[in-house]
């Protein structure tokens, strides 16, 4: 079998000869070397904010129109997509179907590597069909290499079905580009451990996902100032957070916030409006519905 020379040209697969002989370093020196490499990642992400902002605006528009967001990935990238999707319902009280993740190899691949799953182009295409993705939706392909076959198959099929497409990559000139309306490239370069893209590339992908989901939720009115006003108060910590948010937004004391939340069924936005507009919970909910949940437009 001949070696795949194209892999050697991927920045994320290159050998960085400047990295010191790690085994010869003290633990602290070794960790400082890793930390120093990581410090470049936020700067690289910052340089791509104009493109990332286009992606946020596109995703927000799709979701405002009733569409869905799908992250598609394999390995580390896929798991990061699952993490971001899973955190949106408790943080922003989104419907679980609004933001979903598709992982090469399915559920089994979340905790254990499923060998060969990422190499299956047709599996990516079939996954898009299985989820019923169509022209109302947006698909974000996550691929550090920019050439993961499963992701390429998913993006290609999604585009053929009329969905909008975005890709997040860590190598220049990614193969995802022809199938992407927006291509985000964070050129993280060689890894501290050659080819281990769970390091800088994984960090870059996580930072971009933070921006995509958080930026979109802000555009959808899921925050008020920098307060998490759509938080789903499902445990003690989150109920306490909800009380503090009402205290801050409505300028009330703790007992008043507790009463307002109890009367509103622990709907933070409703509780805030009840106090500031002097209305009952039912009227506050209707006002929010009439204004697409945008709290700031009512205050």
Explained architecture:
By secondary structure, the chain is an alpha/beta fold. It is 50% helix and 9% strand. A five-stranded parallel β-sheet has the order 2-1-3-4-5, sandwiched between helices. Helix 8 links the parallel strand 3 and strand 4. The model has no long low-confidence stretch (mean pLDDT 94).
Give the structural class: alpha/beta
CA-CA gap between termini = 68 Å
Q: Classify the helix fraction into a percent range.
A: 40-55%
Biggest sheet: strand arrangement: 2-1-3-4-5
Strand fraction: 5-15%
Shape: globular
What's the number of extended β-strand segments?
5
List keywords for this structure.
single chain, 299 residues, alpha/beta, 5-stranded parallel sheet, 13 helices, globular
Helices and strands, with pairings:
Blueprint (H helix, E strand, L loop, with lengths): L4 H4 L18 H12 L1 H8 L1 H16 L4 E5 L1 H18 L6 E5 L4 H4 L9 H10 L7 E6 L5 H12 L3 E6 L12 E4 L14 H20 L16 H15 L3 H10 L4 H10 L3 H10 L9
Parallel strand pairs: 1-2, 1-3, 3-4, 4-5
Helix pairs in contact: 3-9, 4-9, 5-9, 7-8, 10-11, 10-12, 11-12, 12-13
């Amino acid at each position: 079998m001949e070696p795949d020379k194209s892999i050697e040209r991927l920045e994320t697969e290159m050998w960085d000869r400047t990295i010191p002989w790690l085994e010869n370093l003290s633990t602290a020196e070794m960790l400082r070397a890793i930390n120093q490499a990581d410090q470049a990642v936020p700067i690289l992400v910052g340089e791509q904010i104009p493109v990332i902002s286009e992606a946020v605006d596109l995703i927000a528009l799709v979701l405002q129109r009733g569409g869905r967001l799908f992250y598609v990935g394999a390995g580390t990238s896929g798991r990061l997509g699952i993490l971001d999707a899973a955190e949106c319902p408790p943080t922003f009280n989104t419907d679980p179907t609004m933001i979903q993740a598709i992982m090469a190899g399915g559920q089994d691949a979340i905790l254990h590597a499923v060998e060969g799953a990422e190499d299956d182009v047709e599996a990516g295409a079939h996954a898009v069909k299985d989820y019923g993705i169509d022209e109302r939706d947006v698909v974000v392909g996550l691929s550090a290499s920019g050439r993961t076959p499963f992701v390429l198959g998913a993006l290609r099929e999604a585009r053929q079905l009329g969905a909008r497409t975005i890709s997040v990559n860590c190598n220049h000139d990614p193969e995802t580009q022809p199938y992407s309306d927006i291509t985000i490239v964070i050129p993280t370069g060689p890894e501290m451990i050659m080819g281990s893209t769970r390091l800088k590339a994984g960090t870059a992908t996580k930072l971009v996902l933070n921006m995509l989901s958080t930026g979109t939720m802000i555009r959808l009115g899921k925050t008020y100032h920098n307060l998490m006003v759509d938080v789903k108060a499902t445990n003690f910590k989150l109920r306490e957070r909800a009380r503090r948010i009402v205290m801050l937004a409505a300028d009330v004391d703790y007992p008043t916030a507790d009463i307002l939340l109890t009367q509103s069924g622990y709907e933070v936005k409703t509780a805030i409006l009840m106090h500031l507009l002097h209305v009952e919970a039912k009227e506050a909910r209707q006002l929010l519905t009439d204004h697409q949940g945008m709290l700031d437009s009512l205050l």
